[in-house]
Amino acid sequence: MVANAIQGTLYASGGNVIRVEGDEDSVSGAMREYISDKSTGPVLFHGDAKNVLAAMPNACVDVVVTSPPYYMKREYLAGGIGLEDSYKEFIDDLVAICKEIYRVLKPTGSFWLNLGDSYQSKNLLMIPQRVAIRLMDEVGFVLRNQIVWNKLKGAPDNANDKLRTLWEPVFFLTKETNGYYFDVDAARKTPRKAKSVKHGAVVSATGVSGVRYKRKIELSTELSDAEKQDAFAALDNMLHQVEMGDVPDFRMVIRGATRTTHGDSAKLSGRAKELAEKGYYFLKYSNKGAKISDVWDIIPEDTQGRKYHYAPYPEDLVKNPIALTCPPGGIVLDPFVRRQRQMCIRDRTGTTCRVALDMGRKSVGVDLSQEYLDIAERRCTNE
Predict the structure, then answer these.
(1) Domain extents for the chain?
(2) Which of 66, 80, 12, 4 is nearest to 44 (CA)?
(3) Alpha-helix runs per DSSP H in the chain
(4) Residue closest to 210 by CA, chosen among 221, 201, 219
(5) Considering the entire predicted model, what is its pTM?
(6) What's the CATH superfamily of 60-187+297-380?
(7) Residue ranges in the chain whose pLDDT is less than 50
(8) Which tens digit of pLDDT belongs to each residue from 186-224?
């Protein structure tokens, strides 16, 4: 580990980017000043991530989005984590940094961690999962989702005794179990089209007219007469909502007539309880569009026809976390500005800060290398 890297003086650079090289008081002061500043230009700290974070005030950032160096993958300028003697030591170092991340996050804050895996003696080490478990058990984070980043196109794999890997995990963690900032409407898929009326019958966005459901209710041997009447009335009401444009689409689950995806135990499933008590329930689609899932199909940057060949950390992987969990005017932190192969750092260093700037959020970047920070600054000022 490279330590003792917080040294020098505080200075402002060109454009809207603030560059800081200072002692603990300078780092803390710069953060406090930046919090009250209305500018959305990023502040970039030169230093070891753990040391710089330790100098920041408590609860000062809204969201952390980062992808640390992977274990034994490449050697970055100025060193840093990723080249430890063992993967256990690497995990220890990364967890120590994450403890500082936990401290600087607001109670409403979130932490998005993308981390790739490594092999040793042909064993997949499961490093991302080991880290996630320690973040829950030791640090106190709440793991809300493990997102599958499906890269669609993977790097060449010449091994003839295993499958090719096309995905990496992205962990969505929070400080609290409830009350954290999460704007579910900020990253929905394109809404379905509103209803239409065909031959006098109400038809939903995917062609549901209710005729099939009415037939299933009529032929049901599991519904009582009273339950059938109630189901007919509820279906008519749902079709009216479709006709009025309040609901673009729906599905009706009928006891004994429709396949379910949940268990039959009313103790374990609220849907099973509703089905047992009423004989039916509805699945309604939102006019705002479908909530995004935990599988993200995002092509890595180095396959999108860019001028240079660089590591596959795309801007699209940063946009969802910021949109979902950083309030307008909030601060995004990336303690590892570097992400790219040294042969191609000119284009992609500072991805998180650049995306945050484009989305109108403040951002803080940290790195050991002045060269990486220089590149990130130029990128954020469009030089």
Answers:
(1) 60-187+297-380, 196-284
(2) 12
(3) 24-36, 49-54, 87-104, 127-134, 211-219, 225-244, 270-278, 316-325, 345-348, 351-358, 370-380
(4) 201
(5) 0.80
(6) Vaccinia Virus protein VP39 (3.40.50.150)
(7) 1-15, 303-311, 340-347
(8) 988 776 665 666 655 667 766 777 888 999 999 999 999
